[in-house]
Amino acid sequence: MSRCCCGVICSWFARSDLKKPSNETLLFTHIFFSLFAVSFFTLDIKPTPLTLSLCEWKLVAFVSFLTFATVQFLVALIAKSEAMIGDCAAMAVDVMTYGFNLVAERKKHEDYESALVLETLDIDLSATSSGGENNTAAHEVGRVQLERHLQSKRRQLHLELVPPVMSVSFLLIVTGFVLHESIHTLMLDSHRNETEQSNPNLVLMMIFSSLNLLMDVINVMCFARAKHLMGYNTEEKKKKGFQQYNVIDNSDGLIKYAFDDAVEVNNAEHNDDSSKANTFNEGVLSEENEEDDRVNLNMCSAYTHVFADTLRSIAVIFASVIAETVDSVTSEVADSTAAVIVSLIIMMSLLPLFRGIVRTWCELRSLSAEEQTLSDNDKHQLEVEMN
């Protein structure tokens, strides 16, 4: 957040006739927003055993990007590099994304743990029922758990959707601004002498871009350690704990919600009615211990930012080398060209995120349809009981 604000301020005043703010003012602004960001995102972050490895690498990414971008922002002011300032602004969005993703993943696992506790209580309640009460208890437990599971799933999808959408929005705004300023610089440089152009410090650009590249490699290793390389749950398996329950169309027209073991007990007690066996219409939200190949949108979002930052660092390094070795290319032209390339790379790297966002949105719509079906079934059951 701090780097985003300061990066935009610097880029704005770099090509403006307005009075430029002092370096002290920019530094104060940056430090203020940095402290705010750290306090907001790391407050009450207490990793649990379920989230330890996940929080480990996200905290590494959050702290490393925040620290490095703070130093790079100060160096960018000294080097007068448009590309480095744009990179700082993009890294600000990266840090904000890591912070939101860290909180979102923690909330998702908290929901899961709460659901396990509630499920245990429901199963105990169902087990204490006997005789004719067993079917009613199984019905009520199944219905309540189905409602809870749908609500938990909706919240999980919201937590996976909102942070990436905010990240993409901020990143597009900052990138568009930097791209506009860089193109404007290139157009001006095509009509003015080299003496009228600024002279970014190429040595500082190469040094900090190389260090940034090393930091990106470390963060990618953290992804691999957390088994979320490329943003996918490549080796993570679905969590166990939720019992499988189904929507059952009973012969009397009532809609039943029951666990599989409850259905088996019911069939055992009514062997003489086997010809009227219940038909399973739909299995809803069954959690099995199988490999999960679904994209974790928060992971995909975070990895996209690391990947884009890696390409940005490479682009700045190449631009610095070309400006040093080719006499016909001035420092400002190389710097602005690198900023344009960096901006285009950022926009292209967002394509997988757009795809994931659309997919998550479709899942939310499908979930709404399931909830509507559940509501209609409850209304139908009430009408049957009244008749």
UniProtKB/TrEMBL annotation:
Q: What is its main location?
A: membrane
An annotated GO BP = zinc ion transport
**Transmembrane domains' residue ranges:** 26-45, 57-78, 161-183, 203-224, 306-326, 338-358
Membrane topology term? Multi-pass membrane protein
Concerning Gene3D superfamilies, the annotation shows: Cation efflux protein transmembrane domain
GO terms for cellular component: membrane
Q: Which InterPro entries match?
A: Cation_efflux_TM (IPR058533), Cation_efflux_TMD_sf (IPR027469), CDF/SLC30A (IPR050681)
Localization per record = Membrane
Mind listing the UniProt keywords for this protein, alphabetically?
Answer: Ion transport, Membrane, Transmembrane, Transmembrane helix, Transport, Zinc, Zinc transport
The protein's superkingdom reads: Eukaryota
Ranges for domain Cation efflux protein transmembrane come to: 166-355
Q: What is this protein called?
A: Cation efflux protein transmembrane domain-containing protein
